[in-house]
Design goal:
CATH superfamily of the largest domain in chain A: Tetracycline Repressor, domain 2
Strand content of chain A: under 5%
Number of domains of chain A: 2
Oligomer: homotetramer
Largest interface: C-D, 45 and 45 residues
Radius of gyration of chain A: 19 Å
Shape of chain A: elongated
Order of helices and strands of chain A: HHHHHHHHH
Helix content of chain A: over 70%
Distance between the termini of chain A: 42 Å
Structural class of chain A: mainly alpha
CATH class of the largest domain in chain A: Mainly Alpha
Chain lengths: 191, 191, 191, 191
DNA sequence: GAGTAACCGAGACGGTACGTCCTGTCTTGGA
DNA sequence: TCCAAGACAGGACGTACCGTCTCGGTTACTC
């Protein structure tokens, strides 16, 4: 994570890096986002890159996370059940789409590369968890939730299955499947 | 996947490879199980290794899967709810233990390496899913299950959260956490 | 070199090998005539091949030598000078032609591979030297030769330059060049 | 062929490579001068080696050529005939000596490996030809040469036979043999 | 005409070298 | 002072060919 506001050069360099990485990810997936390739395309030297990120996965996480944030806006259907079910459907659709594989590969990379894990967490998981926690809190406030169930538990039960399918591909990620999963999970989580 | 009963030489070579890989995995995790290292330790040439497996991840999956199979026996507590909850606890304990990280890394590797995915599926997922499906069927037979819920859905809702936590490490995998997750999930799955 | 007259199978096998090798040489040069390729195309197993030849170069030498023998018939112009000059021209033309490179590569291979050297000698050099020695003897008998010059010396002075050029390619192998070389050499060899 | 004066690192690396190669050639001939071996002994990585040379033969040519240059100084006996005959004797002695086989194998390798041919030419042939051309020019200036004979022709007729014998080993490379060959050749070349 | 021995195809195998790729560190020279 | 440019060591990759070996079926002699 970058220094605050040193030379403006740093900032420009970082932007170039993230932008180049975004392009490379789009073109060839994580495999194409080599440090050399990022350096070449961004015009930022490898030494500088390594000054700001610990590994290529970290860069990819930051670059990809930026655009994913807005890709899945929180729903507001009026009911907790509706909101959460819709959110499961949206995340499922995202996973099934073209960015799904990239996300899966980044997630996988973060397992192998511990240095990148904080980046993955920061740019993907934490933001998402916070957003859904908000939904959950709404439900709690409305009294729709069974007592004693933390937001963390709820999130894992709702989205863990999607992650599971995304990684192993043992079952499809269609809207119907998403609804089945969310229905079962929400039956256990809500009143 | 090799032919059945060709030359005995094949079998010896394959055994050597799997055994050497098992050792390397134990010593240094998947990162240590390079094809070169496996070749050196097993005395099997790289060419031969590549004749039998498409990638190092595939070898690791087979080698590791062999010993994992018996590591988590199916429980039989008398009730579906008890059986499934206990199984979630056991799997959770396995993930939290020393083999957990190896398993996580193999799972992650299979995302990056499509050639290895079938091996991961064969040696880890399919066997496990079949075993738990059996548990589920017992529950169905006893009439303890809500109607319209497939084994696949049940498995994903029960174990997806564990996989999620294993990969991202955002929450612990203690017995208590496992119980919370299984309780929430089973409330949604069973009557 | 093969056993005398064992099973006819051997003979068929050897013919197949030589024929396949000839084809491979024509298609891709010596580089394509690997033992595996020869085995595959000829239907003769590698073990059998190694029973009859010590190395792939040896096979190639035998296969290629067979057809080269008749490619350069001895001239008979009536005079020693004419015969020898014509022979130099013919050999030069052969070297410059499509077979030249193959011959060069075989000759080169025989330097690296001592086991193949006898084959190269038998199928290329000896036969050629004997043939030209005959020409030389004719010249001696006619009294056209300076005294004290052996056939070996004559052959080397006449054809060594061609070999030199064939190998290093530092100068062309045209008819004019051949004539210049043979003229200079023959001035030193004949009266 | 490397750039002139880039980083001094390049120079150090290249020197290490050539030095290690020289040693390996001396110890085990061209067969021992593997790229891996050169890399291991010189401490220069394979990638770097391949950045500077196209093939192992090229490295060997450069390494070996460096020391061969001074090994055969040009003679100056006062007469063209004497100089050239002496030079043939010296080259012959070199070929017959311990370096002869290495030279032969490099020459052979350059036939198989076109990428290395320029290196062979640069480090062996061109320098030698230039040196002998000088001798030849002296002879021309002294009027000892028959008219119409180019240096190239003279060189080939004089040294081609030696190359021929070096490669095929069909005749010895003693001083007497060298004298016979040079005598015959010079009779044809000089007045 | 059956038995038996040699032989052969098929191809797996260990070994060795190849040439490529990517990482993360380091150095140089210019801005 | 900071950075692009990129050279470098290290190490894994996947491939190719070699020469040896083992197997099982066929062939061709022997009795």
């Amino acid at each position: 994570m970058p220094d605050k506001a040193t030379h403006p050069r740093s900032l420009r360099a970082q932007d170039s890096v993230l932008c180049a990485t975004k392009e490379l990810l789009a073109e060839g997936g994580p495999a194409a986002a080599t440090v050399d390739a990022i350096s070449a395309r961004s015009g930022v030297s490898k030494a500088t890159i390594y000054k700001h990120w610990p590994s290529r996965t970290a860069i990819a996480a930051e670059a990809f996370g930026r655009e994913m944030a807005a890709a899945i806006p929180l729903p507001d259907t009026g009911s907790a059940r509706g909101d959460l079910a819709e959110q499961v459907r949206r995340v499922s659709r995202f996973y099934a789409g073209p960015h799904g594989r990239v996300f899966a590969q980044l997630l996988a990379a973060s397992v192998t590369d511990p240095q990148a894990a904080p980046y993955i967490r920061e740019y993907f998981l934490d933001a998402r968890r916070a957003a859904v926690s908000e939904l959950w809190q709404r439900a709690v406030d409305r009294g729709e939730v069974k007592p004693g169930i933390s937001a963390a538990t709820a999130i894992d039960v709702l989205f863990g299955p999607l992650i599971f399918r995304l990684l192993t591909g043992h079952a499809p990620l269609t809207a119907e499947e998403a609804d089945q999963l969310s229905a079962a999970a929400l039956d256990g989580l809500l009143r």
